[in-house]
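I'll show one example:
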Amino acid sequence: MKILGKKSLSSIIKIFLWILLIICLLVVLIGGIVVIKEFSYFNTDNTLRSLIILYLSSIPASILIIQFIGIFKSLENSKVFENQNVKRLKTSYITSITMGIMYLVNSIMLFLSRAEENWEIVYMFLMYVVTLVFLIFGVGLIVLLEIYKKAIKYKEENDLTI
């Protein structure tokens, strides 16, 4: 299967990302309604804070998905080395690191509140794992961004010499 162009892997991934974006936006809409409607149900500070942080993290997640849709759209159009992808990668690493920091703050606050229930301890451990995933992903995107900038520079130099 080809990677670039119409009917390629990038076009399939782009469709999947659109579906994921719709799900994420539904979480933002429905999640906000649930938090407001069931506000009194969440009787512990840990539960409410964790729910709010998870809800708020869907906003940068939506931005991250939109950036990747743009990247895969340019791959579908065979426009690989363009400066717009550099901007998209920069926005992607910022949102990824933002999400990692949000989850880290949640985990630290849960730890400081001396989580005692089993679900809180498991949730805290999972938040540390998710934090590491997003922070490492963000750093990986920074490295990819720098490699991408160099590739664009070399391509432009190569285009000038021909």
Summary: The CA atoms of residues 32 and 55 lie 7 Å apart. The radius of gyration is 20 Å.
